[in-house]
């Protein structure tokens, strides 16, 4: 009665998907696992894992992921929740939002970049300075 066995749900977060060199894919992809792109993707990629764009890989579109290593080409909007690593062979253009950014020498980075996380905005810094000056003047 109470001893029914429940089948565990598969954990897709450890699975890696791959678009091989010579393959061109047009459309949007959503996945629980990681992705390696050696071919071309013209569309959006929304995954919970890591994205690796190999040296022959190209993406045109929007990518949302946890971590990313880029060796190839990316054009569009890139939103990385944790760490973005740009290898020396990478070419990036568009908009980047990430928590951490690592850029190797030789990487081409023609993008606007917004760092999120513990970085104070300039407006917050101004408010803190103004409040400090008011407190000091009142003494």
TrEMBL record:
Q: Where is this region: Disordered?
A: 1-31
| InterPro entries per the UniProt record, alphabetical | BacA/B
The lineage's top-level taxon is Bacteria
- Report the Pfam families cross-referenced here: Bactofilin (PF04519)
Question: Bias category Basic and acidic residues: which stretches?
Answer: 1-17
User: Which family is this sequence assigned to?
Assistant: Belongs to the bactofilin family.
- The entry's protein name is Polymer-forming cytoskeletal protein
Query: Which species is the source of this protein?
Result: Mesohalobacter halotolerans
Instruction: Please name the taxonomic classification of the source.
Output: Bacteria, Pseudomonadati, Bacteroidota, Flavobacteriia, Flavobacteriales
